[in-house]
């Protein structure tokens, strides 16, 4: 079993051509959980739902993931503009008080008793909560923790704390822009080397259309090519989905290339529609074919 911890957001998407898509089910944890769901049948999504969360979307979440992780809270649902530039740059603007984002992430005491025999967890929580979550999850027997850091935390003044939190997790997966901002380095290889020097055990550096660079101390870095989707509808959440797939692949084989391949395929599936959820049973044969093309 695998679990993603974070937030659910309703995205109001504005594309470069002015087209909009409103009220789309998103959030980093949701996309990451779907990246896992593509490969695994037992996936939990531990999130809180606001008091005005649409019932039809909650029903979809309950169908996709173990329902015990969907917690109700009294505050309004998280909602954000996702505005995309022609070059792919994304601007996220929350339509609610940004402090609610941190407050909406579940705490260890919210962990459902139904979540048993969990092998891997994707953490998309407030950075300062990483030690508390890691301590709790190790006590639950979870062997592998992947931390996807919040973008706003990846700045030079947080390097010391970032390095501290790396000691609590097994894998860290920033995107290239976050890695550059944090380390002050520019090339992917330099960013990777800097993160490993800070204490990272395994790094999956996500680079969008350039694919990803994965590595660990003492091994050659591996460039993972992007996987072409049938069509690109919306890039929101592809990086989160990569994290989910990478975590499953790493737990399966403890092999960087294999984990990167599963991450890349998960990301490609996320690109093909608006919103995090899709028919994973229909998608699995296509995912396996894309994986086959990568491995041969």
TrEMBL record:
InterPro entries: PfkB_dom, Ribokinase-like. Coiled coil: none annotated. SUPFAM superfamilies: Ribokinase-like (SSF53613). Residues 159-281 form the Carbohydrate kinase PfkB domain. It comes from the Bacteria. Signal peptide: none annotated. This is Carbohydrate kinase PfkB domain-containing protein. It comes from Thermanaerothrix daxensis.
């Amino acid at each position: 079993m695998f679990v993603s911890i974070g937030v659910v957001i309703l995205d109001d998407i504005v594309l470069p051509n002015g087209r909009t898509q409103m009220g789309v089910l998103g959030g980093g944890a949701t996309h990451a959980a779907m990246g896992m769901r593509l490969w695994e049948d037992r996936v939990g999504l531990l999130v809180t739902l606001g008091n005005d969360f649409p019932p039809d979307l909650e029903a979809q979440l309950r169908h996709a993931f173990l329902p015990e992780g969907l917690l109700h809270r009294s505050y309004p649902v998280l909602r954000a503009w996702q505005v995309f530039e022609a070059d792919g740059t994304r601007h996220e603007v929350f339509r609610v008080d940004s402090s609610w984002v941190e407050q909406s992430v579940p705490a260890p005491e919210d962990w459902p008793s139904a979540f048993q025999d969990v092998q891997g967890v994707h953490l998309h929580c407030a950075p300062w909560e990483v030690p508390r979550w890691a301590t709790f999850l190790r006590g639950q027997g979870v062997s592998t923790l992947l931390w996807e850091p919040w973008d706003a935390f990846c700045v030079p003044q947080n390097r010391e704390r970032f390095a501290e939190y790396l000691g609590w997790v097994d894998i860290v997966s920033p995107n290239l822009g976050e890695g550059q901002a944090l380390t002050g380095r520019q090339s992917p290889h330099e960013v990777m080397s800097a993160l490993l020097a800070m204490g990272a055990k395994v790094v999956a550096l996500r680079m969008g259309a350039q694919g990803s660079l994965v590595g660990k101390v003492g091994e050659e870095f591996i460039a993972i090519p992007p996987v072409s989707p049938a069509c690109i509808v919306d890039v929101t959440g592809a990086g989160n989905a990569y994290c989910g797939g990478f975590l499953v692949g790493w737990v399966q084989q403890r092999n960087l290339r294999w984990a990167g391949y599963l991450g890349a395929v998960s990301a490609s599936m996320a690109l093909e529609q608006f919103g995090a959820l899709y028919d994973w049973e229909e998608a699995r044969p296509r995912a396996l074919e894309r994986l086959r093309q990568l491995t041969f």
